[in-house]
Structure formats: C-alpha cells, structure tokens
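New to this. Explain the following:
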Amino acid sequence: MSIVVNTTWKTEPEIFMGTITHLTEIPNGEGLPVLELTIENSFEQYQVVMFQPHRDLQLTKIPDCAVQLVLWEGERGHAVSRSDTVILLDTPDTLLHLPESKLVCPDLVVDIELFIDACPVQSLADFVRRVLGRPSVGLCFLNGVMQEDGLQQPGCLARHSLEVAARSFDACRGYPDEERWVAAVAGLLHGVGRIELSDSKPVDYLKVALKGLGLLAEDLKRLAQELPEAARTIQFIIASMYRIGSPTQPDPKAMVVQSSHLLAAQLQSELMHTASTHLASASTRLTSS
C-alpha cells in the first residue's frame, strides 16, 4: 500500500473511532517500524501512516476491539497518526465502529445500535456493545446465517436476533424496565453461539447454547459485578434455549424468549420464501417478454 500524505495541514487533528482492518510494518532503520494501516467505521475509511515514537506504546497487531486515535488528515481518505494517540476501547459507546466494507447488510448494525441505544440500563447496553463490538464476534454475528430453511442468507442471524429481542421486550410489558431489557438482551444474543456452528445441520440447540455461553463468559462476569441478577438471568435464558418447547420451563422470561424465537423464525422464513417466489416470478415474466 502506497500512501501520499499532504503535509500542509489545513485542518485540525481529528479524533476517529473505528476498526483496524489492515496493518503492515515498514522497517525504519534502528527506530521502531512505521505502520501502514487501514482504519474504518460505518461511515468513513482512512489509509494511515502511523509513526511509533515510544517502544512501550507501539502497535504490533490488529486489536480485536474498537480503536480510537488522532488523525492528521492529508489528501482525502489519507492521514498520519502516532501510536501514542491510540486508545483500545473494550467497551465502545456505539457499535458504529464496525467497518462497513466487511458487512453484508450495513444497515443491520445501525438498527441494532438504535435498539440498544434506547436501553436505559447502561450496564446492559455496555454488555451488548462489549460482545458485538469485538470484530471477531460482531462481524460474524452480523453476517451470519441460520441453518433453518429459508434463513440461510447472510445477515439472517442478526435480523432474526433483533426481531426476537424486540418481541421479547414487547412481550414483557408490565415488567420493570430492567427486566424487560434483560429479556431483550438475552433475545438479541440467544443465538450468538451459531457463529461457531454455521455448517452444523440440523440445528443442535444444546451446542448453540454452550458455544454462546462460552463466547459470553467473560462479559457475563463483568456484568455480574454490577447487575448480578441480570447476568444470572441472561445466562439461564440462553442455557435454556436448547429446551425449546419444554413444558417444564420455570422462568417466564425464558419462555418469552423461546416463543419469540419460534415466532420470528417462522415469520422470517415465510417472508424470505415469499420474496424468493416473487423474484422468481418476476424473472420468468422478464424472460418471457
């Protein structure tokens, strides 16, 4: 990657938050290597030359989290920066740092962020943003498919999960706000374990639950420090998803999420089937004419 930067600065430095998607080290004699990197969010992308003035603050690999840094912009889309301005954000205040070019349906991340932004319980919103804010999880989740018939298009996993979250929230009307949002968050993340089981068919709900709890383990521990009951409930709901349809389910919020999952999957599958039928019909008419 060859970068040309205009060093006649016409703008003030900019604080930019995004995801580093490419990083290359360029030897620099006896000094620390200069970095050429690409950083991107849901709206902008920069090709950056980064100088590393301090050995203790050097960047050696692409971090699996949101990154905030200071950019001095030169030519459009190109900038320079310094490694001592980099801040790694394990709890971003938005999911819009995820890179648009890596998303099949960029609008999905906006829809999920708008949904979570309405949550008045900051610890729950932070929990979701920590989980989905990690590119290794968030990108796979947002681009993920489901194994059920009619739900195998990229993006179906996130779209289904958001619908389950919204239905779970609505179904808990009359509960305190925190409990409604606990159900919504559990609904949003109930299938996150599928990102490690994308080729598994038929669906093994026990494996989905176990993989999901494994991915969420550290973040649930952090949530438990502030909201222990919420963390236990989310863990229980996700763990109980493999018992879909069981008449012995003791927690009403778990039953709500399970019912929302089944309803959303059925309706989304029918919608996809209808859309495919219309497209096939339109294609036949065009061919015939």
